[in-house]
Design goal:
This protein is an all-alpha fold. It has one domain. The chain is built from 6 helices and no strands. It is rod-shaped.
Length: 194
Amino acid sequence: MSSSPPLANPAPFVDTLSSLSRESISIDETVGGIKRQAEGLVNSYYNRFQIVSGLKTDTESFNTRWVEVLLRSRDAASAIAGWYRRFSQVFLSLVSDIQTEQDLKDVVTEFKSFLAEDYPSNRFDLDRISGLKEEFKKIEALVPQESNRVIQVLESATGPNWKDVVKRLQDELVSVKDGCQQIERAFIAYASNL
């Protein structure tokens, strides 16, 4: 418990999500502009240069694919935000409720069960935007990483000082919960801004 958990310092992850949001919006605006320009070219020059009709078709096709991918990324961000909320409000709160050694064992069991679940982003096809997918997965991976840390600390809480170990963990988790909430809000903002 010597170094601060990554979730206690969420700024880099929040910044990444903000950047992804700005980039997605910029691409969307640019694609929309290109689509309108292609339509304008076709309307202005089709009578003499029929080849320009392909430009409109190609840009409309790309725009359709782009919007589909953007919507999937929005849905993935919403799912990850919900996962972060659940982790923070349910699982991290379980640690706060530990009163007995049996509670401690039960919480470890709950965390292990949680770790067996699949990442929420795996439900969405984000392969066409692999850079964004990779960033989402890095941020998702913080939850299992913290879960494993909690399990390790709780499993080490044995003997007459087990309550002291749990108390230190509970104190640490205050900043972790705050970090989770900041990341959750950043995912919600990503989804809302699109």
